[in-house]
Design a protein that fits this description.
globular; 10 helices; six-stranded mixed beta sheet; Rossmann fold; four-stranded antiparallel beta sheet; alpha/beta; 291 residues; binds adenosine-5'-triphosphate
């Protein structure tokens, strides 16, 4: 059984979001819709083991549509494994996942048509140029050629890749690879976008552009779910947060709920994952000593 989930400072569970919050209208939307929107992602009793290692231990998640959702947790918490199962890249041992109202494993074609994914350790077609990669992805997505060309031109331009569009992907830098992967994930205008560490290796100017693009995208009612270790980034971008540690969800809810009375998301996070006071480095007393 999963252990009881508490917010920081012992406040009762932010786990299992209250339905009134879970069905709130998209951030940035003005007129409230009459019918409550279905969650973008619903996860029930999801498990994954790798041999003896339990990577994901029976988690439940309900991520509202139209939000910027951050999935945070320490190294090895189970974020990538969770995102892989939610996006249909890894089969769970047990549990159910629905994305945009469709069962990920029961109706994979419907789900894949509605999502965009920027996975960890992104594998790209290295011998294509950036533009060729987008053309190929657009065609695979069933978009008309002229539409693909137009969207590719705009994405390359906005993401500052126009100058490198004819360069082979194998010659792209880490940040450029993230950006072309993001462009490919956005090309078909998905309902839900999953991004595993999207800002890793991306320079501050491009990061700002990516933020602006993603903020505009969520304002249209679409959902972004991204994993990150960078709390300041999550705090400034996300309006909904799920905290994972040891394969379990420690808290989920609005940023304010998860932060609770803590001065920052970072402090709340350290408390939630039980890392307060750890890692002062005192055991490394030889480091910096006499040589
Ligand atoms: N293919 C695999 N085979 C064996 N163990 C795995 C595999 N994938 C993940 N794990 C283990 O499952 C646990 C969760 O890993 P996961 O990659 O999901 O964590 P994470 O939260 O994404 O970590 P990080 O922030 O470091 O990327 C870890 O203990 C990891 O060693």
């Amino acid at each position: 059984m999963p252990e009881e989930q508490h917010g920081p400072g012992g406040t009762p569970a932010t786990a299992g979001p209250p339905t009134d919050i879970g069905t709130a209208p998209p951030a940035g939307g003005s007129a409230a819709p009459a019918a409550p929107a279905a969650p973008a992602v619903e996860v029930e009793g999801l498990w994954k083991r790798f041999g003896e290692q339990i990577a994901v231990a029976g988690i439940d998640l309900s991520l509202p549509a139209g939000r910027f959702v951050g999935l945070v947790g320490p190294n090895g918490a189970g974020k990538t494994t969770t995102l892989s199962m939610v996006t249909g890249l890894l089969r769970p041992d047990q549990g159910r996942v629905r994305v945009a109202g469709h069962d990920v494993w029961g109706d994979p074609v419907a789900v894949k048509a509605r999502i965009g994914v920027l996975p960890e350790g992104l594998r790209l077609f290295e011998r294509l140029s950036g533009r060729e990669l987008l053309s190929y992805t657009g065609r695979l997505r069933g978009l008309p050629g002229a539409e693909v060309d137009q969207r590719a031109t705009q994405l390359l331009d906005v993401l500052d890749l126009a100058g490198a569009q004819h360069k082979l992907v194998v010659d792209y830098s880490t940040g450029m690879r993230k950006k072309i992967g993001l462009a490919a994930a956005l090309l078909h205008n998905p309902e839900v976008l999953f991004l595993d560490e999207p800002f890793e290796g991306v320079d501050p100017v491009s990061a700002q552009t990516v933020r602006t693009v993603l903020e505009r995208y969520t304002e249209s009612g679409a959902t972004v779910v991204f994993s990150s270790h960078v709390m300041e980034l999550v705090e400034s971008l996300c309006d909904w947060v799920a905290v994972m540690a040891g394969g379990r969800i420690r808290a989920q809810g609005t940023l304010a709920e998860v932060r609770g009375d803590a001065p920052s998301l970072q402090s709340a996070f350290l408390e939630l994952v039980g890392a307060r006071g750890r890692g002062t480095g005192e055991t490394l007393d030889w480091l910096g000593g006499a040589r």
